Amino acid sequence: MANTEAHGLLDDLHDLVETRLRRVDQRYTAGRRAIIDLIVTAGNPVSIADIATRLPDLPRSSAYRNLVDLESAGLVRRIVGHDEFARFELAEDLTEHHHHLLCVACGKVIDITLAAGLERNVSEAIEEIASVEGFRPHGHRLDVLGVCGACA
Amino acid sequence: MANTEAHGLLDDLHDLVETRLRRVDQRYTAGRRAIIDLIVTAGNPVSIADIATRLPDLPRSSAYRNLVDLESAGLVRRIVGHDEFARFELAEDLTEHHHHLLCVACGKVIDITLAAGLERNVSEAIEEIASVEGFRPHGHRLDVLGVCGACA
DNA sequence: ACTTAGACTGAGACTGAGTCCCATTGCAAG
DNA sequence: CTTGCAATGGGACTCAGTCTCAGTCTAAGT
Ligand SMILES: [Mn+2]
Ligand SMILES: [Mn+2]
Ligand SMILES: [Zn+2]
Ligand SMILES: [Zn+2]
Question: Closest ligand to A81 CA?
């Protein structure tokens, strides 16, 4: 192990998560760390079923509670897809602003990123319309409904 | 009542709905008609609670079943907003393509329409990205999260 | 080292929007 | 009429998600 300055990107993320949790008097326990690890490792948003499968020793009640806590701390985002199951991914300020393809057949969620210019146009149009309606926008989500390659 | 050619826009809609239902061997019963009336009359998408309030004599099980049937017939669209309650509106081929402002405080849903040009740009970008992912897109939804005027 | 406050855990009870069941009723075609 | 389904409605049921609570862990203070 010649590398002593060691910290990889994943370790940096864990440090950041820990700092954010500490800021609200929360601890970065093994269960929470395992959930963050899983969310980052999986390419796509993960469901409770995914967590139960990949982390069989983490009780469901703890998984649900940890996800609520991580969401409250602004570290994790809950996604309501096309099926009845919630899914979870890293919050956008830990990754980048993006959107989703939702498979109406199997419920799979795939991340996509729009061109910056188009994203800007959308945001401006939203600001415009919202102000007319007396609505204060915090953000937006664009979901594409369709059928994924595996289900075609 | 001097007007004998009578059929208003609402009547035309009812006729269209009846035709579409007949096409799939379904009947346009009083309960279903009342639900369509309510959905059209209300400016915004309606929840089951709205239906229970405005149509107190329509049993919940019938309301849910009718909504499922109307959705299957492509006449009504189910909206998953920011709260835990589903809402319902006319399907887009009975109105026009549009999107929603979602109040994160009270759950209210407000219809909005984007400029046609922007809408086209979004659709094209989606086609492009989806094809790269091997995903066959059927449509999209754009939800703006924020706080409505009443909740500000 | 010991204490202590409160964050955290886990097993299970509970909630409630939405679905299913089934006996009964309505309705349209022949 | 009759006959085959569509439709009804009251209530039982499902199950993802939430809540409870007694016990445990952890960090900070002394
Ligand atoms: Mn994502
Ligand atoms: Mn709408
Ligand atoms: Zn799929
Ligand atoms: Zn509101």
Answer: 1
From chain A, the residues in CB contact with B122 under 8 A are: 118, 122, 142
CA distance readout (Å), A26 to A3, A67, A75, A103 = 31, 13, 12, 35
- Strands (E) across chain B are located at 46-47, 76-80, 86-90, 99-103, 109-112, 136-147
- Distance in angstroms, CA of A61 to C1' of D16? 12
CA of A29 to C1' of D25 (A): 10
Which residues is B136 bridged to in the sheet? A147
Q: Name the pTM for this structure.
A: 0.91
pLDDT tens column, A1-29: 445 456 688 889 999 999 999 999 999 99
Measure, in angstroms, how far nucleotide C14 C1' is from residue A61 CA.
Answer: 13
Per-residue tokens: A63: 């998984």
Cβ–Cβ gap A137/B122 under 8 Å? no
Q: What is the pLDDT of residues B75-117, one digit of tens each?
A: 999 999 999 999 999 999 999 999 999 999 999 999 999 999 9
On whether any CB of chain B is under 8 Å from the CB of A121, the answer is yes
Which residues are B144's β-sheet partners? A140, B101
Burial class (CB in 10 A: 0-12, 13-18, 19+), A96: exposed
* Nearest-CA residue relative to C1' of D25: A29
Strand partners, B140: A144
- What tens digit of pLDDT does each residue of A115-145 get? 999 999 999 999 999 999 999 999 999 999 9
Domains and CATH numbers, chain A: 1-95 (1.10.10.10), 96-152 (3.30.1490.190)
Q: Is A27 on the interface with B (CB under 8 A)?
A: no
